[in-house]
Hints:
By secondary structure, the protein is α+β, with helices and mostly antiparallel strands. It is about 30% helix and about 35% strand. The chain has a four-stranded mixed beta sheet with strand order 7-4-10-9. The chain has a three-stranded antiparallel beta sheet with strand order 1-2-3, with no helix packed on it. A three-stranded antiparallel beta sheet has the order 6-5-12.
Amino acid sequence: MVKPINIANAKLLELKNLMAEYQVINTTNVVDGGNFLKLKTSHYHLANGKTIIREEIVKKEAVVILPMTSDNKIIFVIQPRPLTKKGVTIELPAGYIDNNESSIDAASREVLEETGYQTSDLITLGTHYQDQGCCGALVEIFLARSINAIQAQHLDHDEYIKIFECSYEEALSLIKLEYIVDANTIIALLKGSEYINENRRLCRKL
């Protein structure tokens, strides 16, 4: 991990003043679309008196889960992604948060449905945006430790998923080789590195 560098208060104040000019003070929206995805066109009126127009893909917030076995292997899912260059991707389990569902409940449900593994030990690793230029939905990352296989996968009728297991070092190699190109997966592996390395150190002491 790179050690964070302290930044002077004056520099932070400069940054805040620059950002303040572009704060949105009023919004006009027009929504069009279906049940799963909607397209919203918004006119954003800024503090500097200017107006910008942006198209937004409206969708639910989501979770990504980094599942770790007791021997420090990571569980990935392989599934068809027709819109990508290769048409198939290797990713971490992920999914949308259902209505009236907490993010931690969604994480438990998604990892169980997609992999058949269960965990009661979930740690949040933070949040990020997938593409803040066209979507405001947050993605929350969870580390799932000490997972156990308890059932077969429970997939939707049009969902096809195979399980792939590898070490953290092997996962990093797959990123370099561009087998792993999913941004959510790469961010989760980066944010989970400290916990993964600490868990391996503890295991070596046992």
